[in-house]
Design goal:
Blueprint (H helix, E strand, L loop, with lengths): L6 H9 L6 H13 L4 H14 L3 H13 L15 E5 L8 H10 L4 E4 L10 H5 L11 H9 L3 E4 L7 H10 L8 H15 L3 E8 L8 H17 L4 E7 L7 E2 L1 H12 L5 H17 L6 H13 L2 H12 L4 H9 L10 E6 L4 E6 L1 H11 L15 E4 L8 E2 L4 E7 L6 H10 E4 L13 E5 L1
Parallel strand pairs: 1-4, 2-3, 4-5
Antiparallel strand pairs: 5-13, 6-9, 7-11, 8-10, 8-12, 9-11
Helix pairs in contact: 1-3, 2-4, 2-8, 4-9, 4-10, 5-12, 5-13, 5-14, 9-10, 12-13, 14-15, 16-17
Length: 450
């Protein structure tokens, strides 16, 4: 029920730096969802929140009301201590969810993963999975429950009734310049995780030139906000800060990333991808008492990737979500029998010899977007086959000779567009000497906060 406080009075309170009460925030959310609040008023409130901020109590209250604005998924008391999820702030080549969910299921946890589509760069987790013939990202609750029974995980899209207030606020944040508000990011992430029924969360917060958070300081601020609010809402949370300058793994592009995720599930993936899956999964196993410590949790996840159990869970998840049994089997054995392939490939060659000083993941992502792998607008259809695969030897500090292959572009056009080629050539900085701080490309973890 709407209160007697007009929406513009709520805006003025926050504009003047007055703390909003739980009742204020509940009333605000109700008016946003019901349509009583006009677009211009919602935009004004978002800007007031952006400029004046919300403390942890306000953010938790806003998040709680966003959860209560729609349906909540319930999975039964017997699974209460097993329900876990992971969320990433997004990165180039970030296909971590694809091997992580089945690996955790193989370790005995339940993973009700609700993911999204990409806007910008390459596609999101749902877009990647839709490159698998027959995969249905929207599932009824009964099918989700069956998937949690066996194999123990699903990856689906959000329903319209899951935290609908988040959708109403989120679609206005971009056009109002309030996307990077820490309290609004926090409430958006945590509301969906609480609504999906997860009982423990690990955050992968990317840091670097190709990440939302450019500095460790800003990433730490966001991590602390999410941890504090999620904990207040009874979802224990750990945040892992990870480097995001160059792509994760070697592949950037939807089908290309699925194929690489399958390699990871077979214990044959790039080391940085496998290590990141093990770190994030190890945190959740430890948090839920399924491993004595972080190190033991990581090794349990690694074992699942190498003994075939995670791959088996992935195959059964595909079948649960609409993929024909023969296609699910093929994806796990020979992915390119099922995945779409681009008609053309073009190598990108080193223009000169020297040492790799940097690999700009953001430029690679922009190039993939121009090929059609990422969106410029929400309703844009993607070309799921296109993308870029970095050469196995390409890493910071690596020696290169003029003419060496740096990466291979998979594209639909007969001729690779000049602007895409220029972006990709410029993405690799080749100097006379390697930089002094050449850490291994697999060394992505900066810090772990809880």
């Amino acid at each position: 029920m709407s209160s007697a406080t007009p929406f513009h009075e709520l805006i003025k309170k926050k504009r003047d730096g007055v703390k909003l009460s739980d009742a204020d925030l509940g009333d605000m959310v109700a008016k946003v969802v019901s349509g009583e609040a006009a677009d211009v008023q919602i935009g004004a409130m978002l800007m007031a929140m952006f400029l004046k901020g919300l403390d942890a109590e306000e953010t938790a209250s806003l998040t709680r009301h966003m959860v209560d604005s729609g349906d909540k998924l319930e999975w039964g008391e017997e699974w209460r201590d097993l329900l876990v999820d992971k969320h990433s702030t997004g990165g180039v080549g970030d296909k971590v969810s694809l091997p992580l969910a089945p690996a955790l299921a193989a370790c005995g946890l339940k993973v009700p993963m609700i993911s999204g589509r990409g806007l910008d760069f390459t596609g999101g987790t749902l877009d990647k999975l839709e490159s698998i013939r027959g995969y249905k990202v929207m599932q009824p609750v009964e099918a989700m429950h069956a998937a949690l029974e066996d194999p123990g995980c699903f990856i689906v899209g959000p329903t319209a009734r899951l935290a609908p207030a988040d959708g109403e606020l989120y679609k206005r944040r971009d056009v109002t310049g309030t996307v990077d508000s820490v309290p609004l990011i926090t409430s958006s992430i945590v509301s969906k995780k609480v609504a999906e029924g997860t009982r423990a969360l690990v955050m992968d917060i990317k840091v670097g030139s190709a990440a939302l958070c450019k500095t460790v300081e800003s990433a730490t601020t966001l991590a602390r906000s999410i941890i504090d609010v999620a904990t207040l809402l009874d979802v224990p949370t750990t945040a892992v800060l990870t480097r995001m300058d160059m792509p994760i793994g070697r592949a950037v592009g939807n089908a290309l990333e699925v194929a690489e995720a399958v390699s990871c599930l077979r214990g044959q993936g790039p080391r940085d991808l496998e290590d990141l899956v093990c770190v994030l999964g190890g945190e959740l196993l430890h948090m839920r008492g399924r491993a004595a410590d972080r190190a033991a949790g990581r090794e349990r996840v690694r074992a699942a990737l190498h003994d075939g159990s995670a791959l088996g869970c992935f195959r059964r998840m595909l079948e649960r979500q609409g993929v024909a049994a023969a296609d699910a089997e093929a994806v796990c054995a020979e992915p390119w029998r099922v995945l779409p392939r681009a008609a053309h490939t073009t190598p990108v060659l080193a223009p000169r010899g020297g040492a790799v000083r940097a690999v700009a993941g953001l430029d690679i992502a922009r190039a993939c977007q121009r090929l059609g792998a990422g969106r410029c607008r929400p309703d844009q259809a993607l070309d799921l086959a296109v993308g870029v695969v970095l050469d196995d030897a390409l890493h910071v500090g690596a020696p290169v000779l003029a003419g060496d292959v740096l990466m291979t572009v998979h594209h639909t056009q007969e001729r690779l567009p000049d602007d895409v080629l220029a972006l990709l050539r410029g993405a690799v900085d080749i100097g006379e000497e390697a930089p002094g701080d050449c850490r291994p490309s697999s060394d992505r973890v900066i810090d772990i906060l809880s």
